[in-house]
Structure prediction request, 922 residues.
Amino acid sequence: MKLEFVLNGKATSVAIEHRETLAETLRNRLRLTGTKISCEAEVCGACTVLVDGLPVSACTYLAYEARGRKVVTIEGLEDESGKLHPVQQAFIDEFAFQCGFCTPGMILAAKALLDETPNPSEPEILAHMDGNLCRCTGYLPIVKAVRRAAAGMRDER
Amino acid sequence: MKKPGEFRVVNHSVPREDGQAKVTGRAIYASDLTVENMAWAKILRSPFGHAKIRSIDASAAKSHPGVIDVITGADLAGIDPYYGHAVKDHPILAIHRVRFAGEPVAAVVAEDELSAEEALELIEVDYDELASVMDVDAALAETAPLIHEQSYREGAFRGFKDGRQASGNVCQYVHVQWGDAKSAFESAAHTVEGEFFFPMAYAYAMEPYVAIATYTKNNLTVYSSAQHPFMVRHDLAEIFGMSLNAVRVIVPYVGGGYGSKSYTKIEPIPAVCSWKTGRPVKLQLSVEEAFLTTRGDDARVRIRTACDRAGKLLAREATIHLNTGAYAENSPLVCAKAANRIIGPYLIPNVDIHCYAVYTNTVPASSYRGFGSTQVTFPAESQLEEMAEKLGRDPLEFRLANLAERGQTIYPGLRPIDADVPGDLRHVASVFEKAGPLRPGFGRAVGCSASDAGSHPVTSAMIQVYSDNSVSVLSGSTEMGQGSHTVLAQIAAEEMGVPLDKVRLVSADTAITPFERSTGASRTTTLMGRAVLEACREAIAQFRTMAADSLGCKPEDFIEEPGALRLGDTRLTWGDILVKFFHHRDTSIVGRAYLRQTGDLKMLPPFWEIGVVGVEVEVDQETGKIRLDKLVTVGDVGLAINPAAAEGQDLGAATMGIGIGLFEELIYDGQQLTNGTLLEYRVPRFEDLAQEIHMSLAQNQDGAGPYGAKGGGEGSLNPIPACLANAVYRATGARIRRLPLTPERVWRALRERDTERTLELKQGG
Prediction:
């Protein structure tokens, strides 16, 4: 079957299997390997992508469900000039990654939070990000990155 | 030696070199790779903990659409089917027998992953179940069935003999002894004694194990998520009888390791699949399969400690039993390290430690960050608190009275302590002092550990300096998040006097990068960092000779400046020297360095990895739930090449300690692992963050690494579980000798405490 959707701002059409997950379509058919697969049970958040602006676990979300929707992956965050999104830059500035395997999902989860809540409180950050696991950093640098990105995005507005 | 403040690039928190790649999704991990004409493998795993394999019928699976072949232990004739760097006891696929539920029995190779998966259930295996031994006591019982009946050869690490001659299921036995512990206990004024249990833990690196192997007649190329590509090369070369230059192991970015990806894990399986089918084969495990691949050793420690009247430690005796699982893996080393590390950073004149690694029918145990130390620091540090209480001494002051100062020997024959442990501990205490008095229901504790880093110094590095003054570092260390690519580039930029963005890392390809024994035991900054520094010095020595040749003077006539040599008014950059020397553009020279166990690296360990931490917890007396209020860490790292990265390692390590201390435990029900999924195995999350975190670095330049640096990244894990248990005791009066400190376990301990208090009151009244 055919999946037609908007991927990182571009109308995209790709042949898929019925039972295929969005993560498989992105990684195997479209070679967008920034979306990572880890727990495959919606616990770790490594496969987080944004569907119509909301974070979903691409490892269990059927590709078919994305038909007609807007999907954003980590590869779609930089602007046309290649400038990093403020959340991406904040992750670099705050050392908010180590191995980097959780990072694409973390960044997209953080973006979803800040798009909805530009000025999140600490408990709001923790509660929103709690669905994403990181084994390297101990989380504090990620919280700092989210705060820094929030400040940067407010200044831009 | 340059001091902090005098460095140009080193000792600055420069952004990580992998940042752009990792925040944009462009960083490539082995899981992301495919190669031309690649097939996929899937593993059929044993449902039984211990069984003989009567027969395997793979005919239906072989004729399933898309399936290329099915490989079993019977297909391994003609190669050496056993591997293992300590003891060669691990069959690539089960041979006649399975020894744990989850052991690979057959591999299906198919055109795509799904077809391979579908074919698994078509394989018929006829098992003859054997009695299984699921824990240390069962394995050591006189009537226990033998898990390994044959004898094995030793692996790449010479000296680890197959230890089963000692007793049926003992994989390794280590005895550490000095002084006369027996007499010391007889004459001691105070003794404490107890039994402690450390849980079976899982490292959960978020990228599960993955490898792609391409076997041709004369070459084997493997892309892998392995931490130690050169150790994997050794095992693969031995399996196929190939020369070292015929086996190429390439490791791109690794999605977390923490010890769990050390040594050979799954690589031989796709390698034999490729050998049999003639196709490149990718094996990508799921996280559930990773749970069945390796774990940390759980431990039971019987320990007693003696003190004299003045409160000086006199003696320690311990018997440590590690549950090693079905295969030796790295447990012989864990065994040796646990025996050493139960001393801690203290001066104890009489010591007698027996440590056993015991085979059981469970998932093979291996390295897990800080291995050996975490298991034994929990009993050792718990017991120090018990002793302090018995003596009526403040636990901090009692520790300070017994800690080794820098230069003192805690372990005869090993390097004297190269850190300021008392100073580090005082720093933690000062953070608590500033925080003010303890609130009711809260408890505070400090803790420390000392690990003889297992970083055996065999390390080589190369750099290339190009005629445009750019530099490449060729390093066999893998980048698994610890930041070594950044740190090594900083060292090269500092030494060669070039901007950091002119330095590139080429890493972890056994056909290109020179030998590095491993990426573990916090070795990279100390050993690879020093090798890179020395390779830079060697390149600069070559530049002196080349410049002298071009200008017709002597090499020693030049004065070295950052990025150049000067002779009077003439300043020649590296590029200028190359152009003058070769009369050609785009040239380069190679600087190189080798480290081995000699000179100031003769005495092991190359450094002591120190852990010094403090925690404050709040215990809910109704539910037993623990909330972490404060976390304090001190990274005694000599010199932080990149301070932000070093603190990142400390917080990451401490957080893993919090997981093991508070919630993580693999649980067996009979022969089956019952919670081997992320749904049921609870790791730390955002909401577990401590309310306050205080991190600091002790930079006394007292290490054997570059500029006095030494390793970090494990230390802050090791004392955390003990520290949590001690803080819970202070908050509640309940001494808990079994981890993790789950709400249920704490709640039960509180009820027990209440019962005891009631009894005491009754008896007293």
Notes: Chain B touches chain A through 56 residues (CB under 8 Å). The mean pLDDT of chain B is 96. The first helix of chain B runs from residue 19 to 23. The radius of gyration of chain B is 27 Å.
